[in-house]
Specification:
Elements (H helix, E strand, L loop, with lengths): L2 H8 L3 H9 L6 E2 L5 E2 L3 H14 L4 H7 L3 E4 L2 E4 L2 H33 L4
Antiparallel strand pairs: 1-2, 3-4
Length: 117
């Protein structure tokens, strides 16, 4: 399928699909004309990418874990033991970022509460 069809089926813009390709997340075939030709499996791959991005993973991390994930019903399941450890590390990174954001918010609340009007 061409890129327009993949856009229609996934709801992801052409620009983002090209970005995913640049990041090594999608590898469409190239026709002699230079057009990208996507396989049926790319629809599910894009859905997995979107799910992992929504979970807070960076594209560099997604590139390493994507080959070791399969879809089980509505969720993704790791198929390689080392991926679980990598995902736990990512969860820890997100937890740390959340703590930092909470501290930033508390500092901002102090500034706001000091307003004299």
């Amino acid at each position: 399928m061409r890129i327009g069809e993949l856009v229609r089926r996934t709801g992801v813009s052409e620009r983002l699909l090209r970005y995913y390709e640049e990041q090594g997340l999608l590898n469409p075939e190239r026709l002699p004309s230079g057009y990208r030709e996507y396989a049926e499996t790319h629809v599910e791959t894009v859905r997995r990418i979107r799910c992992l991005l929504a979970a807070g993973l960076r594209t560099s991390t997604i590139a390493t874990v994507l080959p070791c994930l399969e879809t089980e019903g509505e969720r993704l399941a790791p198929t390689c033991p080392d991926v679980v450890a990598r995902l736990r590390d990512e969860r820890d990174r997100i937890d740390h970022a959340m703590r930092d954001l909470h501290e930033s918010r508390q500092a901002l609340d102090l500034v706001i509460s000091a307003a004299r009007f």
